[in-house]
């Protein structure tokens, strides 16, 4: 059984993961509107992964005899800009999620909840990967600048990303 503090912070994290999915879907729609189908596909897959992350937390709370409480999901921003501007916003959002996951880890230490600490380590590792993936795209966008041919090829590259359902690998 988990403490009330851990239950609360995990429920907050579920909301953040589902908000992240909404944000990525809004970004996907933006990229569709401007004709960058590969960018759109990449962010749509990212949205699906964020839902997976929320559901893993959802299932964990239930497994630990806790109560899942789903909160309201805020409407994401809809003014995005150029691909580089969008990916810089994505990077900032991923850093926010990383900070949030780190707070969960800190809370598990404070509550002496080693099971949840072990569980949350998967998210810590996942966030390192998330930030690195976004940083990789930013570096390419910075390198190519406004070069339309390079943007076309990057769009094709991002469009080759395939969805793989995330599951807890504890």
Short synopsis of the structure:
With 170 residues, the protein is mostly helical.
Salient structural properties:
170 residues; Ferritin; mainly alpha
Report on the structure:
With 170 residues, the protein is mostly helical. The chain has one domain (4-159): Ferritin (Up-down Bundle). It contains five helices and no strands. Helix 1 (4-33) packs antiparallel against helix 2 (37-63), helix 2 packs parallel to helix 5 (148-159) and helix 3 (83-110) runs antiparallel to helix 4 (114-144). The radius of gyration is 17 Å and the shape is elongated. The two termini are 18 Å apart. The model has no long low-confidence stretch (mean pLDDT 95).
Overall average residue pLDDT: 95
Uncertain regions spanning at least 5 consecutive residues: none
Quantity of strands, as a count: 0
Number of individual domains? 1
Largest sheet: none
CATH class descriptor name:
Mainly Alpha
The best one-word shape is elongated
CA-to-CA gap between the ends? 18 Å
Structural class: mainly alpha
What's the CATH superfamily, by name? Ferritin, core subunit, four-helix bundle
Radius of gyration: 17 Å
Q: What's the CATH architecture name?
A: Up-down Bundle
**% residues in beta strands:** under 5%
CATH topology: Ferritin
Topology:
Layout: H1 4-33, H2 37-63, H3 83-110, H4 114-144, H5 148-159
């Amino acid at each position: 059984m988990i403490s009330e503090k851990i239950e609360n912070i995990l429920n907050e994290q579920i909301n953040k993961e589902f908000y992240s999915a909404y944000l990525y879907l809004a970004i996907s729609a933006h990229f569709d509107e401007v004709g960058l189908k590969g960018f759109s596909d990449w962010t749509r897959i990212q949205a699906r992964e964020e839902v997976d992350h929320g559901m893993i937390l959802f299932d964990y709370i239930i497994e630990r005899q806790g109560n899942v409480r789903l909160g309201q999901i805020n409407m994401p921003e809809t003014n995005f800009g150029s691909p580089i501007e969008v990916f810089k916003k994505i990077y900032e959002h991923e850093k926010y999620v990383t900070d949030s996951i780190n707070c969960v880890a800190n809370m598990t230490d404070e509550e002496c909840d080693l099971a949840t600490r072990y569980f949350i380590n998967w998210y810590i590792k996942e966030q390192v990967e998330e930030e690195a993936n976004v940083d990789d795209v930013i570096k390419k966008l910075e390198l190519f600048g406004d070069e339309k041919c390079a943007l076309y090829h990057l769009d094709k590259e991002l469009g080759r990303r395939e969805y793989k359902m995330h599951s807890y690998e504890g």
